Every structure is written in C-alpha cells, then in structure tokens.
Amino acid sequence: MLRLEGIDVHYGATQVLWSVDMRVAEGEIVAIMGPNGSGKSTVLKAAMGLKAPSGGRVLLDGREMQDASATERPRHGMAIVLERRRLFPRMSVHENIVLGAYARPARETKGSLEWVLGLLPDLREHLDATAGKLSGGQQQMVAIARGLMARPRVLLMDEPFLGLSPAMVKTVSAIMRTINGEGVAILFNEQDAKLSFALSHRGYLLESGRVILSGSGQEMLDHPEVKRVYLGVREEAAR
Amino acid sequence: MTEILGRRPALSFLICVGLFLLTLVLPLNDYVLHILTLSLIFAIFASGWNLTLGILGLKTLGHHAFFAIGAYLSAIAAFYGGVSPWLTIWVGAVLAALAGLLIGLPILRIRSMPHVAIVTLAFAEIVRLIFSNLKDITRGELGFWGIPPFDPVSFGETTIRFGLGNAWGSFILVGLFFFAVQGGLLLLLRSRPGLTFAAIRDSEAAAESLGINFGAWKLAAFALSAGIVGLSGAIYAHYVMILTPTSVAGPEMLITLLAIIIVGGAGRFFGPLYGALLLTGSLELLREFGDYRMLLYGALVIGFVFVAPQGIAGLKFDRLRRRRGHGTNESSSSA
Amino acid sequence: MATYTKGPVAARRILALMLLAGTAGTAQAQDVSIGVIGPMTGPAANTGTAHREGMELAVKEWNEGAGDYVSDEPPQVELVVEDSNSKPEVAIGAAQRLMTRSDVDMIIGDTLHSHVTLALMEMAPQYGVPILSAEPVSSAIADKVLSDPERYALYYKGNYNSDGYGKAVHGFYSWAFENDVVPEGDKTIAFVVEDTDYGIANAEKIGELFEADGWTVAATETTPTGTTDFYPQLSKLRGLDPDILVSVFTLANSGISFVRQLDEQALEASHMAIFYPTRPEFMEQAPDIADGMFWAALQFSPEITPEHQAFNDRIEAEFGVSANYSHAHAYCTMVVALRAIDAAGGTDADAIASEIGGTDYDCLVGKYAFGEDNTVQSGPDFIPVPVAQVQGDASQIIWPENVATAEPQ
Ligand SMILES: Nc1ncnc2c1ncn2[C@@H]1O[C@H](COP(=O)(O)OP(=O)(O)O)[C@@H](O)[C@H]1O
Ligand SMILES: [Mg+2]
After folding, report:
1. Sign, Cα dihedral of B209, B210, B213, B219
2. Inter-residue contact C395 to C389 (CB < 8 Å)
3. Hey, is the C-beta of B153 within 8 angstroms of any chain C C-beta?
4. Torsion of CA A96, A102, A106, A107, to 10 degrees
5. Alpha-carbon distance B250 to A238, whole Å?
6. Statement to judge: residues C342 and C396 lie in one domain
7. Do B284 and C97 make contact, defined as CB atoms within 8 angstroms?
8. Which chains have 3 or more CB–CB distances shorter than 8 Å to chain B?
C-alpha cells in the first residue's frame, strides 16, 4: 500500500538518501535497520512529507503523494510517531491523545479514543497527568496512542524503543503486534538488528543512505552480512 | 490547557463577572472608576497580546503598534468621517488585524526569536513615525483631539454617557467589552483551536506531524491578537479622547504592557487581568510615596518576577497542582 | 519586654512628634487647596521638578505673609502635586484623584505638555473646576477654547501661543532692517530645524510672516532630534546663500554642533538660533563659537536682570538648585492663580475663573493678561519674547527696545 520509489533527499547540498526503494504491504510490519546517521529517520520523514525529497515518488495505494503536504497526509491514512516521542510536554495525556485526531472529523474523536484506550488500557489512569512528567515507556505509549487517533492504515514509527527498559521494550513490541492485529501496517526503524527483524515481517538494511539489503525478517537475521556486522557473530558488535 | 486556563476557568470567569457587577453597586468615586477602567482597557490589550506572546510563545514586541493603529484609525474615521464610534472601533480592530496579517507573514518565517523581537519592535517604531508624520491628519505629537466619545445610550428615562468625566458609564462599557473579549477567548481556547495553539507552542515538529498547519494557525492567531489589541486601542481613543503617537505607540506603552503580562503570568488566561489590576492599581497607590513612586514600582515588578516567575496566575496554579498531586499519590497508593 | 534600647525609643518619639505635627498641620485650617499636575516622573521629570519648586516657593511665600496679595485677608493655601508622567490618561487619573480625594478648588496643569493639557482641559467642564495650564504653548489649545468658549469657560492657558516665537523673530528683523542692524539683501530666508512639531511649526510660522513681506523661503531642512552632523544641510545652504538662517533645536548638543559647523562653512547669512541657547550647556560654549549670534528667547536671565537674580537666590536658598525659566514661569503661574483666588474671596469656580480672566499682573517674565482665547498674550506689552545676542561672555537682550539690556553689536 505504501511505496517509496527512488527517493533522493538532500539537506542543503549534502545528499543523505540515494534512490531508496521500499514498500509496505497491507497488514505488514516492516523494519528499517541501520546504524546511527544512515538515514532511517529521513526515510520516514520523506514518506510522511515532513521532508521534501529531491527525487523519486511516494505512493499510497498507487496514488502519488508528492502534492499532498505533511498536513494533508494524515487524511490519507498515514500517521507518524516521531523519534523521542515528541509529546506536548506541558499538556495533559488526554489532550495529547485527542490532538492526534486533528486531521479527522471531530465527531469521530470519541469513538477513536475508546478504540485507542481499548488497545492501551494502561493509559486510562494517566489521562489527567502532565505528559512531560511521565516515564519514557509511558510517554511512548502516549505517542503511539496519539498516532493511532488519526486512524492510520499505515503507522510510521521512528525508533520506538529508544531509551526504554528491556521490560518496556517487550511491552511496546507487544503493543505493536496488537495494533498490527487491528489491520494497521507499521513501518518502523531501529538500530538493533535482532529487535528489528524479530518483530517484523520484512526488513531493509540501510547504510549511508542506501538500501543494501532487504528480505523477510528471518532472511535478514540469517544473512551473513547482518550476522557479521550487526549481530557480532564473528566479531564484537560494530556498534 | 490547565496550565493556560487554570483549573476551573469557567468558574473563575463567572467569579470575575460577579466581582465586576459588585463594583457597580459600590459607591466608588470617579477616580477609582477611572483607574479600574484603564486597567480593563490594558487587560484587553494584554489578553490580545498574550495570545501570541504567552500562549503561542512568539516573542513579538511590537503590539503597541496595533494599539496605535486601532486607536488612530477609529479616531480618524469617527472624527473626519462623522461615523459613530460604536462602528468605527470595529474598523480600527479589523484594520489592526489586517496589519497583523501583513506583518505576520514575514515575521512567522523568521526562526530566531531575537530577530522576531527586533523586527516587531522596528515595525512599532515605523507605525509611531507614520502617525507622527501624518501631521495634517493626526497633528503629530501636538495631539489628535476632538475624538468623539461613544454615543450615549438611553434606557427609558436614564441616559448613560461615556468618555472622560463620565466615569461610571465608561467603566460599565469597558467592563462589557472586557468580558465579551475574555468570554470569546475562553470559548476559543477551550475548543479545538485552543488545544491547537497550545500544541504549536509545545512542539511545532509534533504539531506538524499530526497534520497541523502551524504556519496558518500562527498567522490566524497573530491576526486575532492584533485585532483584539486594536480594539482595545480604539476603546482607549474614544475614552481618553486624545491621542499622541508617543503615548500610544511609544516605548513606555510597550514596557507597561510587558510588565502587566509578565507579572500577571505570560501564557495564562487570567494573567492579563491580574497583572493589569495589580500594576495599574499599585502605580496609583504608590502615588503616596511621591518621588520614590517609580523606583518602588520598578522594585515591585522585579520582586514579582523573582517571587512568582510564572506570574500571579501561575502562582495559584502551582499551589493547586501540588495539592492535586498529593491526591493522586494517595489514590494510587491505596489502589 | 521592658528593655527598649535607646534607638527605637528615640525613633518612636520622633514618629509621635511627626504625627502630632502632621495633625497640627491639617488642623490649622487650609482655606483653599490647589492641585498641580505635571511630569514629575518620566522623560520630562527635570522640567516637572522645576515647576514644582517654582510653585512650592510661590505658595510658601504666600502662606508666610510674603505674597503679593489682593485682599486684606488672603486665604491659607494647601498645595497637592500629582504626576502626569507625560501621559494624558495618567493626568486624567491625577485630576480625578485631586477632585475626589484631595477635594481641590483649582487645578494647575499640565505644567508642561500641550497634549496632556488638551485632555486635561476636558475636566474643567466635567467637574466644574477652574484649570490653568502653565508652560504649554500649542495653539491647538487656544483653538479648542475658541471652538466652544462656553464649554471651556473655566479653562485658561498660562503661556502664549506657539506662534510667539515666530512673531518675535519677524518683529525683531523688521526692526533690525529699519535700524540697519542687519542688511536686507535679496530677501531669502532658510531654515534648519529639528523634525518635531516644535521645530516645524516655528519654521512654518516664521516663513509665513516673511513671505507676507515679499520674502522667499529658500529651503526648510529638517533633521532628526539629536542630529550632530549638519554638513549636508550646510553645504546645500551655501549654494543657496540665504540672507537669514533660522535654526531650531531642543537639544543643546545639536545646537553646539550646528553653530560650530556653521562657523566653519562661513555662511554670510544672519543667523537666528531658537530655543537651544536657553540651555546652560550651550551657553558654556557660546563665547567661543557663537559671538554675535542672535537668539530667542531670553526670558530668564539672572546675569543681566536683577529681579531674576533675586528670584534665583530664593530658589537656591529653598531647594539648593539654580533657577531656570521653568521655575520662573511656574512661580508666576501660581501667583496668578493665588491672586485670582484671593480676589474671588472664596472657592466659587466661576468667580475664580473670571478673576483669572481679568488678570493684569506684572511678574518675573512679563505682564500676565489673557486674551479672547483665554490665553496669555505675548508681545512687547505683555509677555515679551525677547531676542538676545551673544556679546562676549554673556547674552544681552537687544529687542524689544523696552526691555533691551544692550545695543546690538
Ligand atoms: N535537519 C538536518 N539538517 C542537516 N542534516 C541532517 C538533518 N537531519 C539529519 N541530517 C543528516 O542526515 C543523515 C541521516 O540522518 P537521520 O535520517 O537522522 O539518520 P538516522 O535516523 O538513521 O540516525 C545524517 O548524516 C544526519 O547528519
Ligand atoms: Mg533517527
């Protein structure tokens, strides 16, 4: 349903993505794995329209998205959970979540909220808390809840496990599966290969702005290059 | 939004209205009424400015320009056009809002806040110079006099008059304007636009990712803010009935209003009212101290900034929140 | 708690004494109270303070039996000073406070600003209180009175209209041409003035009066307040070669720079300087750079007028500062008010106002008499706007002849 074709991105004169091709099919969880600075976030931003590509196309259900600005894309069924959650720290959890429905008709808000709280029931007791004062894991849940309020068919997640405790990583992974079970496709990125590919149906390996490998989650885990560099099978982990 | 509006904004608003009605039956003399009237005019000004300065967090320092635009254009329309001030104040407000749009377009593209501050300050200075150089129309610093007061209103036998010297009527009128503006803002801030403003202030990147066109929202807020400030300027013009470029668009106006917003609580809904009442009131009370008056006034403002960095409205909120914080702790530990 | 130290006891006694003195002061009936509104704070606070000192001296002398009384039983007067902060709305608040809290019988204000006075004068009909403004000159005030004389019957303007300087400059030159003090030339006049209403209004008025005599205005150059570089203007004027050059600045610095640079450019025009030579900073430098220069208006000159010197001594004794024109003008304005109240024999507003209107009184700066527009009149027979000349170390009045202290050189 979501396709990136030949995406080039420049920051000023520096090119950071080189002809990136990716796709996310209906109901899939797809991982983008790569070292720090390889361009993972930039791929998601380009997909969401938060960073205009200098070349290539973004297609949603076969429709070109180039002319749809970032403010229109949520209406087409896309949502993004930004790196480091990016909550509205001074607002309450409830206000944060409700703002996720900004691009939807107001009459849907109530129903969406019930749906989201059904998926993330732990949030109920924190609705009145100030978002900035929650723990990292709780903040990530709020960020996910906020993203879901747009009722996306594809949810982009930028490093959803960043800075979380191992227990919290498990919880968030479980939530991602649950969401996926509701029919929401997920495209997320992560620096840890095991975490990325264990959770995903398919994955991409990104290095220096280029896709150098792609395949199913298991294929990726089994690939000698991934094993050597990222899983540290022969040597110590590179990162 | 609690941070902006406080715990029970509607209740606080109604209490303010109640206090206002109470002052109407108190035997207050003209002097006290005049001070209250000025406070309320400045409170309208500050509420409008607070929208961009406090709630959106844009460091715009040129809003006295919109006050001057509203004041002068309404006065010019009423004086030369012979139109009733009841109508011309809206002309002043709308033109101020348009000026806000005009200056807002370039300003909102500037990312660096110091630059925003400088550009808006320069804009205000240009507006001041324009009004002082249009001598054939405004008489410059000599003062634009002959501005008509609001036309009297009659209810059967009684006629209420407005303008300087008609302290009671002017106080009621300005009070009504204040509560109308404040009530409108409260409705706006409690609905989706209010949430959106707060979101933009907290994180533009996050707001954009949710599909919020923050550029357009900021521009709209800027125009609304300029319009409200322009309205307060127009009301001022038909109350004081004389304008000079320096007294409405000079640096002192900027400093007075900035102090009101900061002491009241920048970004807090009730901050402008508290700040305007406290500072205008204390400036009058300090008259007892003669030469030391401005010194004490300055010390008072500085003192407030230290004691209550979040302003008066912020003080109250902090205390309430702490109390509430205990409440949730207890309930979670008992659960 | 019986161990009071000496300090607090003494302090308490002093406090008690002060309280006693305070009550005694108010118990001794003040028959009349006068409110004063002026810029006691803000950018014009220096002038406002001079006004207050001048007025306090007048009231003190009046209450102590040293006044120039009209009746045999002059009233004791209480003075209440309020700040206008140079702002109309603040002055209005001050007026209302004076009316409601201090219950004054008359208001003098604004002591300095025309724009504040334009607002303040509205209080006269609203509250039925006589109001006399002190130093403001704007003709707009007089025009407002003329537009509705009945409404402003209780208001009087204690200084001449802003065309006073214009009339003086024109009057002086007419006299100077007649007496061959200055050659008439080919009748061109030029202006370099500060870009304020004050500067421009003066240039316009003077230009108007000369044009009526067949003169041409060669140029009117305006410069922002505070300018110190006048070479562009002066080199332009060099080409135009005017017969008279008039300069108007309110800041001494601009004046000093202008006169210096004018000297270097060696223009042949007769130079008339307006206002800035009244500043002491300018006069300190004048002997070196401005010998022979004409200027207006020398209205207060302790060095050459014994009466002014005596006034200066009284101000100095009372406040420890030397007196300037603002002290003198404020003093005279207060004396006019005191005498009107004395003559009215009570606090009736209409009676006081009509006595102010009938004033005919010689004070330090000239003879006070009000015209049709409730405004003090200027001119040789009333308040003169004297033209002076820098002669050696001092300035001498050279026109009008009835007040001249020296011949022009
Ligand atoms: N706003 C920006 N301006 C300039 N360069 C940027 C910006 N954001 C990212 N980059 C550069 O683009 C490259 C890719 O960054 P990013 O997509 O954030 O990588 P990742 O998310 O994989 O860590 C990096 O070299 C980074 O320095
Ligand atoms: Mg990243």
Report:
1. negative
2. yes
3. no
4. -80
5. 63
6. no
7. yes
8. A, C
**pLDDT tens digits for range B188-245:** 998 888 889 989 988 888 899 898 988 899 999 999 999 999 999 999 999 988 898 9
Residue C112 counted as domain residue: yes
Q: Is residue B83 part of a domain?
A: yes
In this complex, whether A and C touch, counting 3 or more CB pairs under 8 angstroms, is: no
CATH number at residue C319: 3.40.50.2300
Residue having the nearest C-alpha atom to atom 4 of ligand 1: A11
In this structure, the answer to whether residues C109 and C94 fall within a common structural domain is yes
Interface contact B135, partner C, CB < 8 A: yes
Q: Which domain does C235 fall in, by range?
A: 163-301+385-403
Given a cut of 70, whether residue B326 has pLDDT beyond it is: no
Query: C392 lies in a domain?
Result: yes
Q: Are residues C133 and C210 in the same domain?
A: no
Is the confidence at residue C14, as pLDDT, over 50?
Answer: no
CB C126 within 8 A of CB C152: no
**Tally of domains within chain C:** 2
Cα(A43) to ligand 1 centroid in Å equals 10
Answer left, alpha or beta for residue B81, where phi above 0 means left and psi between -120 and 50 means alpha. alpha
Q: How many domains does chain B have?
A: 1
Domain assignment present for B100: yes
Cβ atoms of C320 and C331 within 8 Å: the answer is: no
The residue type at B211: G
Q: For residue range A222-238, what is the model confidence (pLDDT) as tens digits?
A: 888 888 887 765 544 44
Ligand approaching nearest to the C-alpha of A34: 1
Task: Tell me which of B215 and C61 has the higher pLDDT.
Answer: C61
How far, in Å, are A87, B265, B291, C16, C59 from residue C21 at the CA level?
67, 44, 22, 8, 19
Residue B164 tokens, joined: 């300087």
State whether C320 and C232 are in the same domain: no
Kindly tell me if the per-residue pLDDT of A109 is higher than 80: yes
Q: Report chain B residues whose CB lies below 8 A from the CB of C144.
A: 145-146
Specify the DSSP class assigned to residue C178: H
pLDDT higher than 70, residue C392? yes
The answer to the question of residue B272 being in a domain is no
Q: Minimum-distance ligand to the CA of A206?
A: 1
What is the 3-state composition of chain A as percent helix, strand, coil, each rounded to the nearest 5? Answer: 40, 25, 35
- What interhelical angle do B64-81 and B214-240 show, nearest 10? 50
**pLDDT 10s digits, C333-349:** 999 999 999 999 989 99
For B84, left (φ over 0), alpha (ψ -120 to 50), or beta?
beta
Supply φ then ψ for residue B58, to 5 degrees.
-90, 125
Interface test with C, best of B36, B42, B247 (most C CBs within 10 A): B247
CB C230 within 8 A of CB C261: yes
